[in-house]
């Protein structure tokens, strides 16, 4: 008879809150961390972590995994144990209650949280024209649906304003006010990027100022990494100094991925970004992996609008300047790689290892505990996840064990190589105490929970 289900021995345990490390062993029982100690522990399963970092499982605050099993596999293989889905205005597919019920019954490889998305709410009240504002009746309908989603357990509200350019200030503020009333986080993919991005950031800051909602600005580098990251960060500083409840997540690539038929690629986008058609790479569909010509770009826009395209724009140094700022959380924007859609974007398979390789090992911009905080305790705090993002007795046993000297991404852009290559240096990933990935090899388990948001962000 053993005291524990699993023991992780002699690892270097990171405390992201105190920003320190200690060599210790962990005892795991019933999905929880039951002991953190220097004593010898016995268990049925023993994982040796000598010389390795033992970190809380990574929490990715900006994803589009939404129950896609392949996509979850890439996430688990890079250490992600919890994803915050439903971003950029897009709710989980189908009726939310059905989606929640399904993953509660069936389980999933990793933990999922879901948001209600503004664009999906528009569609649910019959508004499919992305260039049209909602009427008063439609806005009232969206508010009723949003309240219902919160009652069911949607964790927050997301906007993808760039995808619905016609959305009015009235409808956006009315929905944000509803989220504020329920004490829910509002994630905002701002209305435009490129040189007009700063005005869009002002709009997002005004949303929290006018409604009192807690706001998180999504994938900052994809919106402002065009030479304006410094100004955007200064605006953020001012907003926080003013006392506004605003935060930011950002990724480790300059090139974003989205549907080629979306408003992001409307006329004028290349002028806005200062690039040509050959800076747009097809990530799925008949031209996947290819830099597009003028003709191919317009052909896909017309005939295959749901194909994913990657825009190779932005300035690499701004990736790291954004992530260096205190409080910025790491995010992948993953959701492009699933069955039939591969290659997709390397962010799905490479974000977290690339962050540690670059920010900690190669550029020495963040200490290891600080880097761990950006993908564990900070997002856990922002999402009100009290039992995640820490290694303490009683916390959920979502854990990643990695080698700080070897952790690296191998995924590449589709025009350069294999987008889905698994990272190196990640030994073990546990979700709720169960081994989900062992040296990159996925286990056929479903320990992940669908977490319903109850109460307010601050009082769960
Ligand atoms: Zn987005």
TrEMBL record:
GO terms for molecular function: hydrolase activity, acting on carbon-nitrogen (but not peptide) bonds, in cyclic amides. It comes from the Bacteria. Residues 358-434 form the Amidohydrolase domain. One of its GO terms (cellular component) is cytosol. PANTHER family: COLLAPSIN RESPONSE MEDIATOR PROTEIN, HYDRANTOINASE/DIHYDROPYRIMIDINASE FAMILY MEMBER. This is N-acyl-D-amino-acid deacylase. It comes from Sporobacter termitidis DSM 10068.
């Amino acid at each position: 008879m053993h005291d524990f289900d699993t023991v992780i021995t002699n690892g270097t345990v990171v405390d992201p809150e105190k920003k320190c490390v200690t060599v210790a062993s962990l005892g795991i029982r019933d999905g929880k961390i039951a002991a953190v100690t220097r004593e010898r522990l016995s268990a049925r399963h023993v994982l040796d972590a000598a010389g390795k970092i033992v970190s809380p499982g990574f929490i990715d605050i900006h994803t589009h995994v939404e129950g896609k099993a392949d996509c979850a596999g890439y996430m688990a293989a890079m250490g992600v144990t919890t994803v915050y889905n439903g971003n950029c205005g897009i709710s989980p597919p189908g009726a939310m209650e059905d989606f929640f019920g399904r993953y509660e019954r069936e389980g999933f490889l990793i933990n999922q949280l879901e948001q209600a998305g503004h664009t999906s709410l528009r569609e649910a009240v019959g508004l499919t024209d992305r260039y049209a504002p909602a009427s008063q009746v439609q806005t009232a309908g969206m508010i009723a649906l949003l309240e219902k989603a919160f009652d069911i357990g949607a964790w927050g509200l997301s906007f993808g304003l760039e995808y619905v350019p016609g959305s009015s200030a009235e409808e956006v503020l009315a929905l944000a006010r509803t989220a504020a009333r329920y004490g829910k986080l509002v994630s905002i993919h701002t209305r435009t990027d490129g040189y007009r991005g700063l005005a869009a950031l002002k709009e997002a800051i005004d949303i929290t100022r006018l409604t009192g909602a807690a706001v998180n600005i999504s994938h900052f580098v994809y919106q402002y990494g065009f030479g304006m990251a410094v100004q955007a960060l200064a605006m953020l500083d001012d907003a926080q100094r003013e006392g506004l409840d605003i935060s930011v997540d950002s990724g480790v690539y300059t090139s974003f991925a989205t549907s080629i038929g979306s408003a992001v690629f409307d006329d004028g986008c290349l002028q806005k970004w200062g690039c040509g058609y050959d800076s747009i790479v097809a990530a799925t569909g008949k031209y996947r992996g290819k830099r597009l010509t003028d003709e191919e770009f317009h052909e896909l826009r017309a005939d295959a609008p749901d194909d994913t395209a990657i825009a190779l724009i932005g300035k690499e140094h701004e990736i790291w300047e954004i992530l260096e700022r205190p409080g910025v959380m790491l995010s992948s924007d993953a959701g492009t790689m699933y069955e039939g859609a591969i290659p997709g974007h390397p962010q799905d398979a490479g974000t977290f290892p690339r962050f540690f390789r670059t920010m900690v090992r190669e550029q020495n911009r963040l200490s290891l505990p600080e880097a761990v905080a950006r993908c564990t305790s900070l997002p856990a705090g922002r999402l009100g996840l009290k039992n995640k993002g820490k290694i303490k007795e009683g916390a959920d046993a979502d854990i990643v064990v990695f080698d700080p000297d070897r952790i690296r991404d191998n995924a590449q852009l589709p025009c350069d190589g294999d987008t889905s290559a698994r990272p190196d240096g990640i030994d073990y990933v546990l979700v709720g105490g169960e081994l989900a990935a062992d040296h990159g090899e996925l286990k056929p388990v479903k320990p992940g929970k669908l977490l319903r948001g109850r109460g307010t962000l601050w009082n769960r």
